[in-house]
TrEMBL record:
GO cellular component labels: voltage-gated calcium channel complex
Sequence similarity: Belongs to the calcium channel subunit alpha-2/delta family.
Gene (name only): LOC115389167
Originating organism: Salarias fasciatus (Jewelled blenny)
Domain of life: Eukaryota
Annotated protein name in UniProt: Calcium channel, voltage dependent, alpha2/delta subunit 3
Keyword Metal-binding included in the entry's annotation: yes
Source lineage: Eukaryota, Metazoa, Chordata, Craniata, Vertebrata
GO molecular function: metal ion binding; voltage-gated calcium channel activity
UniProt cross-references to InterPro entries, sorted A to Z: Ca_channel_alpha-2/delta, VDCC_a2/dsu, VWA_N, VWF_A, vWFA_dom_sf
Length: 1025
């Protein structure tokens, strides 16, 4: 306790015991207040988007299309590019770019926007040029929106013609092939805003005439159609020749949600299609109509728009009898034929189908034609919404902002987008001009969460109408493999996959259905990258966020997590003492950016700047913590100045943190001599206060008995020579269970120093006669110091430091589990990625036993060991990450999403000492384990006389959940595809409109003359080289 100052801090908080007020947190009130704040924030973003809609529609109404218009605009790829002579290239020009920390230090222009045109489109196509010209009017609104709300990030307009206007202006860079594959019309925010939810059946002709290139184009066409489907859509794919073949046989007669997993599953099956026989389209159409009708009757689909996509190389008749039976006169199901190949013999029949059923006909001759032709159906599906002039506001699920993620290597930037459609207000019927949107970094949501009111283990989370996580501390969207990469299904992680103890989905379904209520359950929360587990009882409070499809929840852990205390000190007393706390960034408030946090607090709390956006309650509590913890600065300084203390510089840092996020640190060695220089820095994400969690050392200290210390070795240093040990303890305000944890203090010391102190204590003989018959120096025994989760802190074999005890002493660990000294807790990871390994795992040593004399040894050394530990004030240790061990010991191939089961281990607190014997092939091995008082540590002494290397190790390796038989596995896959969790359908639906112009139903497509004229010189130049 000497170096941490824990006793002094406990005393200081006790002095204020009578002047503070302990309150039970009202979870219902808390979550409702949070929902209101989020609603206000989302409303500001939606309002900014609405202003863009109004400006775009007004600008278009004032513009007369001119096919000969010449207009130089800033092309996102060409800006600041020069030719061989140093002149700006066409559509480039000098474009001022400056780094901006609000946009993750990307170089941007806050005055102008840029325009990106897909690589497969012509930059000077008249439609593009006219659209770019009139949409220049959005620049002024972009800037105005940003000035009104400085928290806004990217704003943009995606045109139905294909170009993308983005603010602030930023330079785009092609890939290594010189291509930018981005097409705004393929983005979810565009598709959701442009169309209503839909049920789709895709019919693919696999008759003999579809062999070769035609089948290849057909596959790509189907894949592109799947790209346009989102989580509110449902689909199935049927291949037909003289028979009907469901691409996924187990989904006969039904539809499935168009989520990432299902679409990828069907794509895999597309490669198995082969062409033969004759095509009987009539039966296939009838099957598609029956599926759509039957599925619609169940109420499980979109219950909105319906469509049949027909991918074929021809139709010998018009099949009007089929349409008359199933679709006329209402024509609720639209038909979209895609004629594959250059031949047009059957084009008239297919076009007639489209026109007679409110669809659109396209001809696709090459792979290059696929995307542009597939996109055309979206404009047809959007007609009812356009005619109704319904500017529905749509919100996407969480996704990684690729522009930011490429730049921000230190973390991720999850984003949601709010978008609205833009319509022509001229006399035309049903013209979609495009979609406007703005990104909302979910980190902005985190700033609204009153973390100081949620307790140490409490958290807030939000989900979408489909049950997908918008934000949750257990969401892991990236995996590490040299660099951070997105997991394939990161944007569709269901709440039930992280709150997996809720087996009946009670919490998830209530939130999906936008209810307000409460829920409770026992949970197992992992920390330290899944190595350790904390068992607790959580109370959940939830409600909907008005004006959005989202719901928000708050989880509070019972016990100290349900209570909060309020202290009170003067502004004058507390302000000078502040070191660090969470407050809204002053830089986000333009007129106050020149103020420091301290200046802002003084001005706000004294009433001289009441418009500052500060949290008065949080500031008051931070000031209180600053006053109470101030004496530790002088205490630590005194220790540092005392030359007789810490002469070998084994203790490097003392630190504390309070429930409000205030932190103090004191260095006992120069900063450049720290063994672990990442600790308490931004690089140490689990070791610092964050918007969504308390530090790991704080969390674990809070779960120990008050006054005891938790010891650990940080994972990031366990593989290095510069290893350290952390130790921390929690400070409790009162002496009962309802007392909140007000702070935690601790130290960082060198691992070598800690281990040396341990061995010194072990070798001291305290026997009355001075004759110790055995010590840890004996070759007959192995001595270990392990923590309450079974990780080794000290052992004579230094290479075993940081390993799980069961990997080294498998037989002993198995016996401890049998005797109840340790418990195995089974955990599940539904966000896992599995690697296919080659080779074998590390051949960890698996000793195990101990002789009866070791119990005598324990009694002799424990008193010395106890004194050694009390000299510090510490925290708990942790092991090497399993994924790192796996990468070190095994080869790897590709990574695929999977579900895994893995164990964690926890000591039984009530068992203070245990002895046991193990039979190793007739040789009896003994061991003794005893808890070290006032810590989370255990001394283990094992007899080394028997060879127990044949005993299997106890590992923490995750195991993929795979069923025993192929048939059972296939059956489960099918059940999973068919199974649909509860979802809340979007409230808006525009399936069809009587005023639609059904005669605008397509024609065979050819390259535009302008594009052809542009491509001819390029082709000629290529052949001349």
């Amino acid at each position: 306790a000497k170096y941490s100052g824990s006793q002094l801090l406990q005393k200081k908080y006790k002095e204020f015991e009578k002047s503070v007020r302990v309150e039970e947190i009202d979870g219902v009130k808390l979550v409702k207040n949070l929902a209101v704040k989020m609603e206000e924030m989302f409303s500001r973003k939606a309002e900014a988007t609405r202003r863009l809609v109004e400006a775009a529609e007004e600008a278009h109404s004032q513009h007369e299309d001119n096919p000969d218009l010449q207009y130089e605009y800033f092309n996102a790829v060409l800006i600041n590019e020069v030719d061989d002579e140093g002149n700006n290239v066409e559509l480039g020009g000098e474009f001022l770019l400056e780094p901006n920390d609000h946009f993750n230090n990307l170089s941007v222009n806050l005055t102008l926007s840029v325009v990106q045109v897909p690589t497969n489109m012509y930059n000077k196509d008249p439609d593009i040029v006219n659209g770019v010209y009139w949409s220049e009017a959005l620049n002024k609104v972009f800037v105005d929106n940003f000035e009104r709300d400085p928290t806004l990030t990217w704003q943009y307009f995606g045109s139905a013609k294909g170009f993308f206007r983005q603010y602030p202006g930023v330079k785009w860079h092609p890939d290594e092939h010189g291509v930018i594959g981005f097409d705004c019309r393929n983005r979810k925010w565009y598709i959701q805003a442009a169309t209503s939810p839909k049920d789709v059946v895709i019919l693919v002709d696999v008759s003999g005439s579809m062999k070769g290139l035609r089948l290849t184009i057909a596959r790509q066409t189907v894949s592109s159609i799947l790209d346009t489907l989102g989580d509110d859509d449902f689909f199935n794919i049927i291949a037909y020749n003289q028979e009907i073949h469901y691409v996924e046989p187990c989904l006969n007669g039904t539809l499935v949600r168009a989520d990432r997993t299902n679409k990828d599953h069907f794509r895999e099956h597309l490669d198995k299609l082969f062409a033969k026989g004759i095509g009987l389209l009539g039966e296939a159409l009838a099957e598609a109509f029956n599926i759509l009708n039957d599925f619609n009757q169940t109420g499980r689909g979109s219950v909105c728009s319906q469509a049949i996509m027909l991918v074929t190389d021809g139709a010998t008749e018009m099949y009007d009898d089929v349409f008359e039976k199933y679709n006329w006169p209402e024509r609720k199901v639209r038909i979209f034929p895609y004629l594959i190949g250059r031949e047009s013999a059957f084009a008239d029949n297919l076009k007639w189908m489209a026109c007679a059923n409110k669809g659109y006909f396209s001809q696709i001759s090459t792979l290059a034609d696929v995307q542009e032709n597939v996109m055309r159906y979206l404009h047809v599906m959007s007609r009812p919404k356009v005619i109704d002039h319904e500017h529905d506001t749509v919100w996407t699920e969480a996704y990684v902002d690729s522009a930011v993620s490429l730049k921000d290597k230190s973390g991720i930037s999850l984003t949601t987008t709010v978008a609205m459609p833009v319509f022509s207000t001229r006399n035309e019927t049903g013209i979609l001009l495009g979609v406007v949107g703005t990104d909302i970094p979910l980190q902005e949501l985190m700033t609204l969460i009153p973390k100081h009111m949620l307790g140490i283990h409490g958290y807030a989370f939000a989900i979408t109408n489909n049950g997908y996580i918008l934000t949750h501390p257990d969401l892991r969207p990236l995996y590490q493999e040299g660099q951070k990469r997105r997991k394939p299904n990161y944007s569709s992680v269901d709440l039930s996959e992280v709150e997996w103890e809720d087996k009946d989905d009670s919490l998830r379904n209530a939130m999906v259905n936008r209810r307000t209520g409460t829920f409770s359950m026992e949970v197992k929360k992992t920390v330290d990258r899944g190595r350790r587990v904390l068992k607790m009882h959580n109370d959940y409070y939830y409600t909907d966020i008005k004006g959005t499809p989202f719901s928000v929840g708050v989880a509070l852990s019972r016990g100290h997590g349900k209570y909060f205390f309020r202290g009170n000190v003067s502004v004058e007393a507390g302000t000078p003492l502040l070191c660090f706390f969470f407050l809204k960034k002053i830089k986000e408030q333009h007129e106050h950016r020149h103020l420091t946090q301290i200046q802002a607090i003084k001005l706000f709390m004294t009433g001289r700047r009441p418009h500052l956006k500060c949290d008065r309650e949080l500031i008051q509590e931070v000031l209180f913590d600053a006053v109470v913890t101030a004496p530790l600065e002088a205490y630590w300084t005194g220790l540092a100045l005392n030359k007789s203390e810490n002469s070998d510089k084994g203790v490097e840092i003392a630190f504390l943190g309070t429930r409000t996020g205030l932190s103090r640190t004191n260095l006992f060695v120069p900063a450049d001599q720290l063994s672990n220089q990442d600790f308490l820095t931004a690089e140490d994400k689990e070791g610092v206060f964050n918007a969504d969690h308390f530090p790991l050392w704080y969390k674990r200290a809070a779960e120990q008995v008050p006054g005891t210390f938790v010891y650990s070795i940080p994972f990031s240093t366990a593989l290095e020579n510069k290893s350290v040990v952390l130790a921390s303890t929690a400070i409790q305000l009162l002496d009962d269970r309802k007392s909140p944890i007000v702070a935690a203090v601790g130290i960082q010391m060198k691992l070598e120093f800690f281990q040396r102190k341990f061995w010194t204590a072990c070798r001291q003989c305290t026997a009355l006669d001075g004759n110790c018959v055995i010590s840890c120096d004996s070759e007959d025994i192995n001595c270990y110091l392990i923590d309450n989760n079974g990780f080794i802190l000290v052992t004579e074999e230094t290479s075993q430091t940081g390993l799980f005890f069961g990997e080294v002493e498998g037989a002993v660990m198995n016996k401890l589990l049998q005797m109840g000294s340790f418990k195995r807790i089974t955990l599940y990871d539904y966000q896992a990625l599995c690697k296919e390994y080659t080779g074998s795992s590390d051949s960890a040593r698996t000793l195990s036993d101990l002789l009866p004399r070791t119990s005598v040894l324990m009694c002799i050394i424990l008193s010395s060991l106890h004194r050694f530990l009390l000299e510090f004030n510490l925290y708990s240790w942790w092991n090497i990450d399993l994924s790192v061990k796996a990468q070190r010991s095994r080869g790897k191939t590709m990574m695929v999403p999977c579900d895994t089961e893995y164990p964690a281990f926890v000591s039984e607190r009530t068992i203070k000492e245990t002895t046991g014997n193990i039979d190793c092939d007739g040789c009896v091995r003994s061991f003794v384990i005893q808890q070290i008082p006032s810590s989370n540590l255990f001394m283990v002494v094992v007899d080394n006389k028997c060879d127990c290397s044949n005993a299997p190790p106890v590992t923490m390796d995750p195991i993929e959940i795979i069923l025993d038989t192929f048939e059972h596995n296939e059956s489960l896959k099918c059940d999973r595809l068919k199974f649909q969790k509860d979802r809340k359908k979007p409230e808006s639906c525009h399936p069809f409109h009587p005023e639609e112009n059904a005669m605008e139903c397509g024609s065979a497509t050819r390259p535009s003359s302008a594009l052809a004229a542009a491509l001819l010189p390029l082709i000629a130049a290529a052949f001349s080289r």
